[in-house]
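Researcher: Sequence recovery benchmark, item below. Answer with residues only.
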């Protein structure tokens, strides 16, 4: 781990230790994938729980010690309510997901990859529970129904109340194991915190920023900020339980200001053992059960990557060298830049044919802004966090960076 900037709550410089680096790597977990084409839309965000009034008076702690506290936390039992929202400046995906599902012939599917994408936008409330690595449950509370994803030992079940569709998977490897991991970790502040800690490096500042109460618990606030200019991410704040080191709230704010873009936090949490009945499930009478092996795209909820893949430093590295889209370059994709200004470069479907097909009144122009440079011309598509430049020559540059950084990357690649 690179040096951490704040030694104590009030902030003195301190160095990192080899042991702490090992613990940070241990804490880092890779979960839900974010595909290149959908990096903005698939970024799952959660709304923070309201902090209790009054900041607790806690013993001083260094940033290094707080990172170690998160890494060393072995709490495996909890239950509670998570308040969720995201504001990336894109439309709600709920209706889009349903439309795509019907077009693909999977209307009413209970498979996790078909339903958890809905968390990528809007406001949601989740009920979560865990009893060790073999029993977890997540329930998305809707206005008229509930969608539950349950992992119990060697089985994963998913079902929406009132529906006759049930998804089932046996764990033990491949896509089935990925479904289990998705059920185990989706929707908790820990998931986001672990991904954020992977960003700690030479381009990152880490400090302790006071204390707070979250869901009735005393917590320290860990502040992670880019040292580089050009990132659309302004800061990441993690409220860490002062007693057990469990992340209670995660807040990602854009560099442009305004309200947080990605948040997740407990409004209520209990670290006692949940009742065994919480993890039990029997398909309703007459329900259609879809086995994981029969569901297209199974395991999307648990593949390697994480919900912040592509946003935080290192998140795009795992995609480098993968095959490009059909019609793209044989060399696939690669990353350019470093740290918080890392950009993914790929070939758009159709490649150079895009130039001849694209006119001034094209669909691309209608939804984006024109950009020019040494690379030629192209269109920039923007959200609050992720920007993408599609050149008329068929190259695509995507990252949690500003428009200017994208243009400079395209110029350098010309």
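Model:
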């Amino acid at each position: 781990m690179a040096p951490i900037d704040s030694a104590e709550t009030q902030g003195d410089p301190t160095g990192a230790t080899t042991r702490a680096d090992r613990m940070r790597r241990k804490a880092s977990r890779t979960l839900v994938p974010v595909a290149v084409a959908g990096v903005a839309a698939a970024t799952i965000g959660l709304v923070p729980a309201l902090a209790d009034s009054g900041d607790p008076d806690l013993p001083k702690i260094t940033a290094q010690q707080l990172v170690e506290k998160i890494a060393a936390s072995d709490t495996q039992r909890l239950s509670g309510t998570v308040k969720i929202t995201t504001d990336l400046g894109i439309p709600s995906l709920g209706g889009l997901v349903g439309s795509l599902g019907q077009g693909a012939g999977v209307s009413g599917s209970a498979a996790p990859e078909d339903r958890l994408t809905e968390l990528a936008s809007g406001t949601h409330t989740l009920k979560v529970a865990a009893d060790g690595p073999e029993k977890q449950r997540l329930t998305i509370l809707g206005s008229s129904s509930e969608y539950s994803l349950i992992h119990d030992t060697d089985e994963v079940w998913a079902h929406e109340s009132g529906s006759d569709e049930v998804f089932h998977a046996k764990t033990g490897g491949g896509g089935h194991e990925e479904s289990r991991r998705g059920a185990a970790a989706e929707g908790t502040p820990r998931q986001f915190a672990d991904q954020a800690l992977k960003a700690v490096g030479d381009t990152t500042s880490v400090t302790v920023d006071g204390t707070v109460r979250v869901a009735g618990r005393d917590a320290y606030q860990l502040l992670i900020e880019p040292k580089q200019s050009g990132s659309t991410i302004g800061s990441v704040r993690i409220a860490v339980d002062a007693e057990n080191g469990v992340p209670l709230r995660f807040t990602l704010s854009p560099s442009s200001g305004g309200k947080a873009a990605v948040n997740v936090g407990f409004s209520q949490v209990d670290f006692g053992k949940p009742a065994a009945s919480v993890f039990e499930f029997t398909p309703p009478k007459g329900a259609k059960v879809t086995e994981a092996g029969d569901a297209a795209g199974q395991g999307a909820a648990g593949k390697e990557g994480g919900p912040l893949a592509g946003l935080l430093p290192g998140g795009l590295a795992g995609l480098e060298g993968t095959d490009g889209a059909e019609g793209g370059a044989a060399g696939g994709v690669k990353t350019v830049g470093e740290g918080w200004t890392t950009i993914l470069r790929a070939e758009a479907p159709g490649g150079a044919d895009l130039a001849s097909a694209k006119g001034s009144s094209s669909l691309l122009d209608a939804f984006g802004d024109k950009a020019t440079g040494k690379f030629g011309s192209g269109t920039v598509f923007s959200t609050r966090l992720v920007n993408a430049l599609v050149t008329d020559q068929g190259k695509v540059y995507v990252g949690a960076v500003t428009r200017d950084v994208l243009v400079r990357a395209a110029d350098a690649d010309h």
